[in-house]
TrEMBL record:
Keywords on record: Glycosyltransferase, Transferase
CDD domains the UniProt entry points to: GT4_PimA-like
Organism: Mucilaginibacter ximonensis
EC number, as in UniProt: 2.4.-.-
Glycosyl transferase family domain boundaries: 200-358
Family annotation (InterPro entries): Glyco_trans_1 (IPR001296), Glycosyltransferase_grp1 (IPR050194)
EC category: transferase
Protein name stated in the entry: Glycosyltransferase family 4 protein
């Protein structure tokens, strides 16, 4: 059986299920090497401004090893946060047929890519795009550097249209690019929890015909929740509510701007077991990201799996793949409060119209699942 070593920083809720599934399917053998080290289980998330403990098992059902991280400032938020002098030896001792690296922008990961290049096939997984445009000398320098980085890669598993264009721009050709869609646990987000949904809507005094718009994520400039706040306050329709779920550096400003407005609501960060209820209680999910660095937006997958209409900015990486204008939602120009306001007005005519869009979302997202990712990886490794 072919053996795949997977190098990634720390256990997260979007990747651990894929590793477990690869093991369960039994087509290849895998071992995951976590480069942040065991301390990553108690990491502080600067975006949410708190330590996050996910309420789902992240280390069950597959083989893994912790890697010693010697960084003076460990973390996945900067290049020198992952320094792993023993990683290459650990991986080599397992004798893999190929190495799959998640993200190059860490000293330990880039070192591993260079070390294994030419020894065994180096696979790569990332979700960068070209949506954050650089001009002049910065763009030229970045292009030279990234072409050198990706010269170490035998194949990249691209997550969508914008990610594919990124790899093409930095030197990878069609033969090296394999589609492995970004995905979430669609079944978990689609499973109905009707009483909890009713309880949540009652908590905010919503009646049946009221429409609930949802923002869920980090309250940070990149996500641009302040634009949604501004656009919502310009709306003139009655019976429309806005719910912000999360925490972050913009929290106080958001709450100050919402002061005295009875149809704007807040909830603190909610863990994975609760989020399906929140998505299902809403009618429209909005991700108004401004970037830079809004690579995909997996919350859009979650909302669509929950059967919701979606409204996203054109700087959200998944927009080109998942949002079909007028079918399951809309795309607006990032930073334009007028475009966002107009889109909100157009989409919130009735709950029934949004529910029809939500049904389309649920159909569109079905092929974007963990099985598709696992099969792509297996087929590449086994040569099918």
């Amino acid at each position: 059986m072919k053996r795949l070593a997977i190098i990634t920083t720390h256990p997260i809720q979007y990747y651990a299920p894929i590793f477990k599934l690869l093991h369960q399917r039994g087509q290849i053998a895998i071992k995951v090497f976590y480069t942040w080290g065991e301390a990553s289980l108690h990491n502080y998330d600067p975006g949410f401004q708190q330590t996050i403990q996910w309420d789902m098992p992240l280390l069950e059902g597959y083989s893994f090893e912790w890697v010693q991280n010697t960084s003076a400032n460990p973390g996945s938020h900067h290049y020198k946060g992952i320094i792993t002098p023993y990683l290459n030896k650990q991986v080599e001792n397992w004798n893999p047929d190929a190495v799959l690296v998640f993200g190059w922008a860490y000293k330990g990961h880039l070192s591993a890519m260079r070390y294994f290049s030419g020894k065994v096939p180096v696979f790569f997984r990332g979700d960068s795009t070209l949506l954050d445009k650089l001009a002049g000398i910065k763009s030229a320098v970045k292009k030279v550097f990234l072409k050198r980085v990706y010269s170490n890669v035998d194949c990249a598993f691209y997550v969508g249209i914008n990610n594919r264009a990124y790899y093409k721009a930095y030197g990878l050709d069609d033969r090296q690019l394999i589609f492995a869609p970004h995905a979430v646990d669609n079944e978990k987000f689609s499973a109905r929890r009707d009483q909890e949904i009713l309880d949540l809507r009652n908590r905010f005094n919503l009646v049946d015909e009221d429409i609930l718009i949802l923002f869920a994520g980090k309250f940070e400039p990149k996500k641009n929740p302040l634009l949604l706040m501004e656009a919502f306050k310009k709306m003139t329709k009655a019976g429309v509510h806005l719910l912000f779920v999360g925490n972050g550096e913009l929290e106080n400003e958001l709450k100050n701007k919402a002061s005295g407005i009875v149809n704007i609501h807040f909830m603190d960060f909610q863990n994975q077991s609760v989020m399906p209820v929140i998505y299902q209680a809403a009618d429209l999910f909005c991700l108004p990201s401004a970037g830079p660095g809004e690579t995909w937006g997996l919350s859009v997958n979650e909302a669509m799996a929950a059967g919701k209409a979606v409204l996203v900015s054109n700087l959200v990486g998944c927009a080109a793949d998942l949002v079909r204008d007028g079918i399951n939602g809309k795309i607006f120009k990032s930073g334009s409060v007028n475009e966002l306001t107009n889109a909100l007005q157009a989409l919130t005519t009735t709950r029934e119209a949004l529910q029809k869009m939500g049904l389309q979302s649920a159909e569109i997202i079905k092929p974007w699942n963990f099985n598709a990712i696992a099969k792509a990886i297996e087929d590449r490794l086994t040569g099918q």
